[in-house]
Amino acid sequence: MTLRRLRTEIARRLAGGLALVVLVFVIAWVMVRAFGLFGTTGNLPQFIVVTLNGLTLAGLYFIVASGFTLIFGLMRVVNMAHGSLYLLGGYLAWRMVQHRALNYWVALLLAALAIGVVGLVMQQVFLRWNQGQDLRQALITIALSVILADQMIPYFGASAVSIGAPDGLAGSVRLAVYDIQYPTFRLVVLGLATLIGIALWYGIRHTRFGMIIRAGVDDRAMTSALGVNVQVVFAVTFFIGAFLAGLGGVLGGTMIALAPGQDAAFLLSSLVVVIVGGMGSLGGALVGALALGFVDQLSGIYLPAGYTNYSILLTFALLVFVLAMRPTGLFGRR
Amino acid sequence: MASRTVVGSGRRASAWAVCVALGVTLAACGTGSTPSPSAGPIKIGILSICGGPFATFEQETFSGAKYALIQNAGGKSLGTGPEDGVSGATVSGHPIQISFGCSDASPDKALAEARRLIQNVGVDVLLGPLSGDEGIAVANYAKQQPNKTFVNGTSAAQQTTLSVKAPNFFRFGGDGAQWMAGLGKYAYQTLMWRNVAILGEDYSYPWTQAAGFIGEFCPAGGKISKRIWIPLGTTDWASAVAQLPSNIDGFLLLTGGTDTVAVEKEYATRGGNLATHMLGGSSVMDPTSFTVGQPLKGLAGGSPVPLGSTDSAWTSYADGLEAVYPATPKGSLAGSLFTALYYDGMNAILQGLKQVNGDLSGNQAKFQQALSGLSLSTPNGPIKLDANRNAIITNYIVQIVSQADGSLGFKTIQTVPNVDETFGGVFGPASAPSRDSPTC
Hints:
The structure holds two protein chains of two kinds. Chain A is an all-alpha fold.
């Protein structure tokens, strides 16, 4: 028994140690390539731009995945239609900006609110009466996502569209170092992600509703038994989660583009973010988004030449790596 | 467009597979008939893409193929949409029956649909497929069905006709390298570029297009200083753009759909000038990218169709198609290479059938011989087939311009006649384009 425990302990430490070694190696490798140490040719401006790209993309991932992790943490619902909500939100705002000539920020808010309502309806009509049936709920949301994906094609077309950034933010800012031009809107997304992160953290840590959510995450049955109307909490949480997906869709549609297939792509990235970070944890979503954003952006450049096509694979290597060490994710609780 | 669509959709499918697998894991954590070849009707199958991210091309390909039936086989459209049927089409007294195949842009799905149409529905002639890797798969399948005839849609991989060479597979639209003819010289002589980078998606179709550019640009004296191939499935292209060297004269973009929009937006936002510092592949020169807006004005690229041409052959085709299938925005169906090349393919089939009076007997030998010898006069120029049954085409340099009403449109600025698949001997069966081949 002791021997077995010892073996498990050693295995755990080994894995942790290995992770640390890999992490240090990766950082050292990127630094060598970026700064041009040991006789290699470096490219510092490129490193700065790519790091900013990683940060801003992580911001977008965080906005989308925080809604996903909130819903999962409280309700144990793996909302497989989360990506569809992202795409639909983007399309709605695109229509409003392009065809109704609405102000960008008004469109952003309206689209996100509309997606919040769509999420709420989805939860009330399809998921509420399947409470506790995790697999069934996952399958229902898969069905919804397939239906939504197909319905969006006739309404919004199958070609890529992009939402024009609001005036003043469409261009780029000149950074103080190396005369780098950097797209303003990407920095706006990073700023918004930070604000949303702070708001969510404050809301969950320091408000009564946040306390109920935390209690619900820890023990749903007990929270309910204490007289909290769990159904209302569930509905509000689903609304917020869907709202964030819609918001992410508008920002993503402005920063990158919208097209059929982006729904699956962002669902996948949300899944990776919350699995790496730990399901239901806001801090986990932050760390997961940063990890995914950096892997996404850095790997294409800093992998040895000839291996850059493996950069997509690295995302999943990250996933496997974290799961092997911490099956519940970095910040997940058992 | 070709292979872009293939892998693009494959990527989506695999993304879904991973999503479903991950999602379910998470949830668990919580808890044929034989056709009559000569007498009676002639069955034609149209294989296109109608699912996945490139479902948009279904409309274009169908409108092109059906317009050919309406214009040259006496067909009547049953509605004003490309999805509406066509009735009453005949060729040399034989009624034409149309069946449709629906791929999702992956070679396996295209192959399954081709099999279904040939073996179960019993079509005599198959028009399609749309994309590059699909084309390679279908051309290989054609070898197993020597008594049927395959006419390519828009698939543009070089190998399909240069190395697979199925004797009953005919391509009247040319390949991706041919679609770049003229652009290398344009870059060197008109834009005076000497040092160029290539940025594209990492698979065969962009490699083929790059080969077409390099085939002209490098012998002229130009240098390719960097080739950046980004894996499909990349959502955010910001860091791809960041890899473009600062000392280049310009870069060639070989992407499709969302990726095109992502790169163009990123480059323009960071202060880059698309018109003077970028050239586009054939899929980049597509109305679907107009969502990027005014920065596109002045961007030039290679295309197998004379987009925006004022030549009467092109305008009468575009106006005729618009009259049958009115599009929003106006001209968006006719302004696509997918529409034009499916139109050409169907017309080739009809002309071949007319020459043999609809006689498909003798394992279609006479019909296939007629196709091989066709001299087509198409809206995109005169077309003849080479010994590998791939077209010798006219290629075009097209440019995005601002139209009278302020919206974006195309203009044809250069015509390159007689472009053959080997580029006058540069390419051969063994010279399959890859990441770093051809060299420069």
